[in-house]
Fold each of these.
Amino acid sequence: MKKKLFVGASVLALLMSAASTWAADKEITVWSWFVQSTMQKSIDAFQKAHPDVKVTYTYYNFSPEYITALKAAAASGSLPDVIGLQPGSLAQQYREQLEPINDRATKQWGADWEKNIFPVNRKQMQMGNPKGDTNYYLMPQESQVLCIWYNRKLFEELGIAVPKTYDDLKAASKKLTEGGFIPMFQGAADGWQNENVFLMLANQFSPGIVDKAQAGETPWTAPELVEAMQAWKGLFDDGVFQQGALGAHAYPTGAQLFQQGRVGMMALGSWWMQESKFPPPLSEFVHNMEGFDFFYMPPVKDGNKASPPVGGIDIGYGLTKNDAKNEEAWTFLAELTNGVGLQEALNDLNDLPAFSGHEPKGDITDHVKEMSARFMADLPKAENQRFASPAVAEALDNALAGVAAGSLEPKAALKSVDEATQKALASK
């Protein structure tokens, strides 16, 4: 009898061990800078549809925390199952640790699934891949369009009209400064925000020129790009950006000041609509977004047009090569980018969809609907926002910082970007 009890206990122990292992395999880990409250809604919706999979999410502020955490995890071989990515330079840094997802997407959505992704997003999904590599290493969740947001209440109180010319922009900045407000907050310690503003400027002088420069088809020292770099310096010298911008961060500092009504303008993007879902007392004008609207950078040179829409993939996700968990991880990624998880993010107005056929649902004001419709109309014609090579993006970041600080002349700064581009292209 005792022997039978011993065998039974052993079998039970084995079953419990197997169940524990199975449960561990069904738990996936996700890292990104995606808003934690919104991601939790996406996770809850996913787990309701897939109760056998547990998702553990770790949020990081994008710069520098997330970038630093990814580098450390990649170096130690401890990346999570799913990682948030931007296309081009960031995705390429981790391409060797990522599983191509072409076959999984075709199985999930059919052979023509790419046609449902907006054109600028499709272009960005393979940015920086080695020659002949047609794999996708990230799946886009959301799109964005870059713009200048402004505080409608401050503009009304100070008698400021939406700037149509560069002189208008300087005059608006002067009135805001004299009124005790920050004119246009620039987190110039963050390379990403500097890149965004430079792209707005460069595409005024020649739409698509940065893509040509990245591809080696146009030198970075082309007159249009030199003029764009001079205009970038002018935003500091002419008082459009705040004093001390070179040491400032867009998040959390700039965003919080903008929320609090202390900033007149800020170069952000369509993702700022999510502020309408944050309840008071954040500020009296943030809730429901009634206090905000947007415009595109006015022409900085006579004869130019206002900046065209610039954008593409806001955030995408990649599968790391954690083979044992990739079935469950892909199931989550698919729902997050084109399923129940995406719908929750859109309902929170986190940003625009990357796949066509989706729209936010729920309690959304007419003003937000109107702004969202403007963004969606501009998205299909957006110029590319991303950089294919990490080295080129870093070189441009350094050039922008040097010119802003006055330590580099525009043409010399751009020459260093051209050299980085030639080196990157030669290594492919």
Note: The domain at 28-143+313-376 is CATH 3.40.190.10 (D-Maltodextrin-Binding Protein; domain 2).
Amino acid sequence: MTFEEILASVSNNEVTLPAEWAQGRATFGGLVGALAYERMQDVVTPGRPMRAMQVSFVGPVEPGLPVSLEAELLREGKSASQAMVRMVQDGSTRAVALGSFGGGRDSSVTVSPLDAPDAPPPEDCTPTPYIEGLMPSFTQFIEMRWCYGGLPFSGKGGREMGGWMKFREPPAELGDAGVINLIDAWPPALLSHLKDRVPSSSLSWSVELVHPRPEVRPDEWLLYKATIDQAGEGYGHIHAEIWNRKGELVAISRQTVVVFG
């Protein structure tokens, strides 16, 4: 199933996620976040854009089992809304997401984002093919082309990782849900420090969307760059940004990652 088909398959606030979107024994976190965002939109004021979302991965959202998306409007103000989605599977909470939505306000403060980093165009970068059994299943739907840092389990180390990314089969409209899905596609930058394959998982994830959102075509390459802030005792803290082809900031991400090795 494509990303677009999964969003359309949600019925009565319940969905069963296919195995091809797995990341280890859990469903890909970007898809979990995108589904939470979509469900939040049902309970907040229509047309009010999401500014930030925090996701706590309490347990694995397993493919093949129904998962319910329980949404609650926590507060609705004149220009801001706060909502929560709890994802429940087999009687237990697997993920909790908090979303902050806010309409535009008149303000005397305007600060331009930092420029996008230098990167070769995606056409000059080597494609990363999907290799079944070696790469997470969900990467068959997302193409990535490396620009920064070493590959996972290469032992090269460093603080940075990233490059270009897009859906292999573009949806009719990318939308904020598509951006949320894509920004989580890259592996944790910590994995380039390792030489042996070990499990890893996101403990928490925060994503912030820039609005008004710069134009992004559904088939457009987006540039992603992650930086490790600190790592130790099996945990790592990573921040990242993504830009469109024009170099305009689209979204910001921050993760706390657990590495079992």
Note: The two ends are 33 Å apart (CA to CA).
Amino acid sequence: MALETPDAQHSGAEHPFVPDSGGASFSEFDLTLLNALQISPRGSWAQIGTALGVDATTASRRWRQLSDDGQAWITAYPVGQHHTNAYVTLECTPEAVHRVGSALCGLNCAYQVERTDGKAQYFAAVATAGPQALDDLVHDHLSRIPGVVSIRAELCLHVYHEGGGWQPRTLDSAQRAQLTTPPSDPFPVPLKASDRPLLDALSADGRCSYAELADRCGVSETTVRRRLGKLTRSGQLAFRCDMTQQAAGWPLNAIFEVDAGADLDRVGRAVSTWPEIRLCASTSGRYNLLVYLWLRSAQDCRRIEERLVALSDNVRVDSRRVTLRPLKRMGRLLGPHGAAVGHVPLDVWRDSSPRSA
């Protein structure tokens, strides 16, 4: 429904190639705070502070610093909706590399964009309203970007593990128990068109206050609390705390396209438990498993490949790529050191008439 124009400058966010302020490293307290927010993204600062053994003001102040510096962010996004997710690989001419990257980053439906090594320069994860909408995106939009040479799209068939489940694992079981609140409403609450202002606000700031949400949505604070509570308890709206991977000590991204043959499910479940895994999903196309990881160094690529083929005699690594530069994650535009420098609201691709922001 809502689609940005290819030029991300018009989205109200920074251009995806603007440099950020430089590299940084998280302290031990930073990682425990971020781990707590991954488990309880909208938990009260009193609850988070108690779990970490600090006062609420200390936790709140440090989060605000990390958020303001683009080192961490919280995003809300709908789940359980009947959307088609796909992984798109693009090859373009050398002079078109930045133009194509800017176009991809400006799309609301592209929630992840990376520039990679190898023949194809870009990897993107997209969400569309269905297979026909994906075809429209690929053949009626992306193929018309000047300089695009080839496009390959594979559907996501099943997700074994996704990036929102990755954690630095700095909290003990007692701390995690204090922060965990399982969904309590088994009945799905479908999203409505009237939820759009709420989703847009929470996509930009997942910890946006109820008062500010009420102001943006033009309803009472009580109405916002009730609606948000229903959506989250029923599992229709998820919150995700992300962080700068370089500062977390995992500076390298690697993408493996794997054919696991008849052992797909067994291999997928096994890989999903690895601490490096950001995404493990079965796909259509010439391979049936996509494995995406955060790594400590380039040398880890060989180790990961050895672990993959050791899982089954049926496993064959079809291709492996290293990300030269991550440009976008969950709607956040990333600077060269991985810090968020802008935001493009998330939405699915529905037709060939993108909406200007």
Note: The chain has twelve helices and twelve strands.
Amino acid sequence: MITRNFFLFLSQNNFVKKRAMKWGPKLGAKQVIAGETIQEAMETVEKLNKQGLVCTVDHLGEFVYSREEAIESADHCIRALDAIAETGVNCNLSLKLTSLGLDVDRNLCRDNMLRILETAKKHNNFVRIDMEDYSHLEETLDILQELRQSFDNVGTVIQSYLFRAEEDVRNLKGINLRLVKGAYKESPEVAYQKQEDVDRNYLNIIKVHLLNGSYTAIASHDHRIIEEVKTFTKENGISKDQFEFQMLYGFRTELQKQIADEGFTMRIYVPFGEDWYGYFMRRLAERPQNVRFALQGLFSK
């Protein structure tokens, strides 16, 4: 049986990556990636907006190792924000700090973020810092707190498979957070290994953040989680304006539309760019059902 660990291994394997990139569309990546260019991403977002769905775009790329690459990645984020403003689509921006040079120079990364947030503020837009693996967690939260001294249009992501998730959520009261289960392989010393423990903690941190009066983005394709959140918010008098649901582009599209039709904010995470490989492998790792995208792509004409 193909396992989660197998795909997580492939997501970090450069040998396989180099070969896979040559025939990426045949892997089914095109079904979950909104093209390679900003223009293609905007066209996808516009179509989703017409269905009553709002979006966040993410220019794929992580673990850059030079100042030039980091600056180029930041410039790409700025161009994406400008494109969102020019096209008038309902969309914000997601990004990874490693793509902005976190592993090269912390100050470089911070300065890139400041440039991006200045542009987002000019356009009255919001930027989400995606959470990466555990080794980057502390630096990500430290930079977030530093940025929030000057900007309120920035938030981040907390992963429920980490033991420290509830403490982090409480410390980030009042900040717009995307809450997720988690997509990396982490040590038993820092993370739950059983799915039921991850799910239980996920619902816990959602309720904690909502009851704190903080804006909460519930990023899940699990209909059971979604229904429980709907019930919880109704029973506790929590306005639909205080939270949103989020899903990945290309997954559970009928459920996405259903949630939007019920009057909830449904935001679609729309990735684009040439460096799609790591993202795609993690999606295959998350749920065995996702493997069908790859198989359909391989055997399609």
Note: DSSP finds twelve helices and eight strands in the chain.
